[in-house]
Every structure is written in structure tokens, then in C-alpha cells.
Amino acid sequence: MSLNVQEWREETVAIVTELLADGSNPDAEYEIEHHFACQNFEQLEKAAVDLFKLGFEVSDAEEMELDDGAAIFCFDATTESKLDVDAIVADIEKMLPILAKYRVDYDGWGTYFQE
Questions:
Q1: Which of 54, 98, 102, 106 has the lowest CB atom count within 10 Å?
Q2: pLDDT for 47-70, tens place per residue?
Q3: Number of domain units in the chain
């Protein structure tokens, strides 16, 4: 998914709005998981290292098979945060140049409902 920062802001507003409308706790700390994918493992690994250096917790890469049988590698970078649109978008803005540098796709972010 190759959206620009404004489109990611709109997507982030929608996600946060839905979570809060469903009754998720607005004062809780959330684990925000940013998702990445690339067909080239070495490029993915370099992006993961750079994101780790920025302070993100980076998961181990996993290999997945696409519908057409091609292999793709994925990992997540996580942070702890309130459901703050500006903070989440600021993190995305930090990530996008790294992802462009290594040609890694940003596949959005997610989190879990908090009571």
C-alpha cells in the first residue's frame, strides 16, 4: 500500500475513531503494530535495523506465500502509545523515508481493543 502521509492520517483517524466508538479505553496505553512487507529479505532486514535504531521494537521476519505462490517477507515494528493520531502519524512519517530507501511496503498499523 503506497499511501501518502495525508492518506495515512485519514486512515489513522478512521481506525482511532472506530476503536473509541466501540468503547475502547481512551486513556489506555496501546501497543501500536506497524506492518511491513518486501519480497527481498535483505532489503527488509536493512529496514528493520534502521527502524530498531529509531527506537521501534522490531519482530522477527516471517515468510508468507502470496495467492500467486510468490514468497514475501513480513515484520512488525511496535511502540506503546495512547490512541493519539498525531503521535501515530509522526511515527509513520519517520518510517516512510526508510521504507522508500529499501523499497519496503508499509501495510498500515493496528492495535487491540482495550477495556
A1: 54
A2: 999 999 999 999 999 999 989 998
A3: 1
- Residues counted in the chain: 115
Query: Which three three-digit cell numbers place residue 80?
Result: 506503546
DSSP string, 25-41: -TTS-EEEEEEEEES-H
Burial degree of 45 (CB within 10 A; 0-12, 13-18, 19+): middle
CATH of the domain at 61: 3.30.70.970
pTM score: 0.90
CA 19 to CA 30: how far, in whole Å?
A: 11
Q: Are 100 and 37 in contact (CB under 8 A)?
A: no
